[in-house]
Amino acid sequence: MTPARRTVGTTGTATTIAQLAEAAGFEVEWSDAHGHPQRVPEETLAVLLERIGLPCSSAAQIRQSAAALEAENAGRKLPPLISVDCDRAVALPVAGVKSGSHYRIELESGAVIDGRFTAPRGEAPLLAPIGEPGYHSLLLNDTRITLAVAPQRCHTVADAWHALHGEAAHAPPLWGIAAQLYGLRRADDGGMGDYTALASLAIASAKRGAHALAISPTHAMFSAEPQRFSPYAPSSRLWLNVAHIDPAAVFGTEAAQAAIASVHAADERAALEALPLIDWPPAVRNKLRVLRALFERFCAEERAHGSPRAREFEDFCTRGGRALEDHARFEALHAAQLEAHERNGKDKGRAPHHWRDWPEALRNPRAPEVDAFAGEHRHEVDFHLFLQWLAAKGLSHAQHAARDAGMAIGLIADLAVGCDSAGSHAWSWPEDMLQGVSVGAPPDLFNQAGQSWGLTTFSPRAMRTQGFRAFIDMLRAAFAHAGGVRIDHILGLRRLWLVPEGESARNGAYLRYPLGDLLRLIALESWRHRAVVIGEDLGTVPPGFRERLAERGLSGIRVLWFERDGSRFMAPTQWDANGVATTTTHDLPTVCGWWSGTDIEWRHRIGQTAPRADGRDPVKLAREERAADRDALWSAFQHAGVAAPDVPAPPADEAPLDEALAFVAATPCPLVTYPLEDLLALEDQPNLPGSIDEHPNWRRRLTVPVDEMFDDDTFSDRLLAVDRARAASREATAAPSVTPATPAPSAPSPDRS
């Protein structure tokens, strides 16, 4: 390994690139999935430091970067936001406060606390504990600082039940359904799932005893480039996917049909609806043509005369503020840039798919040229505001429908780990985002090449210096229309694997994040919105991480395939009582697909089967291992009493689906979510990680409409069995699965700001 370059820091001590990286939050040394120690090469560290704004290509740059970090970390200036725990003393940086200074705390409730620091010289000045959760203001001299005071834990599944049935009611084991929103089917849906189908699914499943409906991400995508349709690579996590709007939801069936006829979209819609897979580009374009016709009618008949609906729209735009306006401007600009490129000919340079390829003046959302564009194209910008309004109304209606039908939780939104660096979020708030890197994962047992997801996310340095503004806004957007949030790859709250753009996923490093601050903010927003939080904690989990989540009332995910002790599948009673149980996830095989080995065949078909050094057939070996796993799982079913004893495991083409559902139902987890793919006995999984076009990721549609699903006796009987199985597990959960030392405070009205 090349020796680390050294320079002299501002204090006269020698500084290496590795030391600079450590000070910046990178883990220079780490352990891989096998527990083997690894060290990040200096060349990789140097590139990553450059990408996060700490140049280090010369001795002078290293000194300057080290000095900048030292100034940030020395605590000479109080940060704009300090997160603290409720009823715990608040320690402030020594260098930021003088002994004897007076302070005032203005609580959200209107109460005021006046005080004076009296800490001995050199010791951290303390604020007295604050017993009221919320965002309070600390006034110190001429400085105003936000104190984010978090409750001890998030709103839990038990809290959701008590909110519905009263504190005296014991929270029973609950269950719900997990669905891919885009794959839902109903009559006249234009070829993809929409918010109206979601509402129908919520109502029908609630009638069968479900208390939650976990859904795929609803983040905003790229209207001008509908070929970008992975819900986990959104344009923005602040706004919604307009492709899921039902044109008839707000304006009625007659108006929607008139709009469809006016743009001659009916025949294409019928053809798209007949397809077994979603054809995203034409389906989105067709939907947008119809919605544009509705917009023109809305402007002419309602907005021009100030109707109640028009006023509601204007209020929505006002509440959305700069962030909503920025997203709408981005959508209009993106389309204009691509159209200009098409007009000028494709040989006129690279297509402006990324905003970094736009004219320089348009890359800055605060530039006067962007204001001028918005003024000249006001109608087009307003169209995208209109789309967000309709999407918000559609998703909000689905959540209200779920709760009105009796669900304790309702929708569980999915919060993606990052967003596309070419999208509106990165364009609108570049100072908050990491630039020139991709979030991913190092090589592990399941992906030996590692993963680079092509996503960006928040800079931890920017989080601190800007008072976690962007993170809080994102949380509020996620909670806005849901009773819970699933945080994808929650391990990223502690550290994220960053890969320089264009590099192999192996050539990355972990960057640490302020886990304590982020967990407090999540707990605070969960409490304010009365919404549960679930963390996707699968993969290489650092020691103690799951325990920290549990302390905050934040549930992990426990998946049937992974709950093992060596070759043995763990009994349901051994599963983590703080987790949310499930048979599978969107990235893993369904029960029928796992039992038959469909996932093995798919991986071999698309070239994901690595040859073995010993020359053995890897596919044959995988099938043999799966046969042994089937026997082990069947044995676990028998020991749990959900499968007949002394009966051999069913053959590969006869998956014991009902036994698998009952097995997971018998766990002590407070909530079990069953994927629709398993409830419908489907073999194919929604997404095959590591593939792009080789597998129809994010395109599979249900074969029958939502309402007809519940008319099917097999499906309905399966839901009835699940409901009874969860009720039967009540004796094993005589107390709430997460019992905090002291109860969480009562939540105020949800914060929709």
TrEMBL record:
<keyword id="KW-0328">Glycosyltransferase</keyword>
<protein>
    <recommendedName>
        <fullName>4-alpha-glucanotransferase</fullName>
        <ecNumber>2.4.1.25</ecNumber>
    </recommendedName>
</protein>
<comment type="similarity">
    <text>Belongs to the disproportionating enzyme family.</text>
</comment>
<dbReference type="InterPro" id="IPR003385">
    <property type="entry name" value="Glyco_hydro_77"/>
</dbReference>
<dbReference type="Pfam" id="PF02446">
    <property type="entry name" value="Glyco_hydro_77"/>
</dbReference>
<feature type="region of interest" description="Disordered">
    <location>
        <begin position="727"/>
        <end position="753"/>
    </location>
</feature>
<keyword id="KW-0119">Carbohydrate metabolism</keyword>
<dbReference type="InterPro" id="IPR017853">
    <property type="entry name" value="GH"/>
</dbReference>
<dbReference type="GO" id="GO:0004134">
    <property type="term" value="F:4-alpha-glucanotransferase activity"/>
</dbReference>
<feature type="compositionally biased region" description="Low complexity">
    <location>
        <begin position="730"/>
        <end position="741"/>
    </location>
</feature>
<feature type="compositionally biased region" description="Pro residues">
    <location>
        <begin position="742"/>
        <end position="753"/>
    </location>
</feature>
<keyword id="KW-0808">Transferase</keyword>
